[in-house]
Amino acid sequence: MIKNYRMKLYALFMLLALAGCSTLIGPHSPTAYENATSLKAEVLVTLGKANTPYSDNEAEIEAIKLKAEQAYEYVKGVPKNQLSTKQWEILKDPDGDLLGNFLKRWKERSTLSDTIIEEYKKLASDAFDEIICLEANKKEPTECMTDGDSNNG
Amino acid sequence: MANFDDFIDALKEGAKKLAGETFDGFEDQAKKDAEDFIEKSKEDLKRWTKLLAQGDINEQDFSDLVLAKKALAEMFALRQAGLTLIKLERFRKGFINLVVDTAFDVFL
What we know:
The structure holds two protein chains of two kinds. By secondary structure, chain A is an all-alpha fold. Chain A is built from six helices and no strands.
């Protein structure tokens, strides 16, 4: 009887030890997913306008910068979400090599060539897809598609 | 003591099955994702080199694109790390349920 009680106690201890471990990664956030997918579309449209003067698009550019900052702050506030937060940091960094550098060159040169615009659009699209893929997989196993994959452009 | 041994045996068997279900094909998929990323990077570099040679982009553009690709590689690595954690988290939750279910089956 005592042995059986000890066994139950041991099983309970194991369970509590496992359940007590903190979550390894933050939960899926529909808002974070929505922010990433909608901003992806807006960013790609705005980048596509880089063959027209930067000054003509300044309001739109500032709007996407603000939205990217808001999306970053949102994911940063989700517990155990360091990986997604870091992804946003890389994407939105004004001194970074993705959106930041593209907007810097656009401002410097006033307009950019269609060739460079198309190349950056592919990179920006893939960058958003990395964020979207991670967020989607927090909900359920989801195959990740990027611009380079056959059925996504 | 038989109950305890039964519990451990059932737990081992269940954990093996759970690991199989949770991680089945994960390593292969991770390898494939990495290979696809590398292959895409090669194609991009080839295309950018050609654009540079043709004068469609300048050296600064070329350098910018390579650095942007490097930033994208960091984001890809973060995604892969995240997918691994998601799998581990699913295993952890599944194992907790397994301990509960097995204990109920064996002891109650």
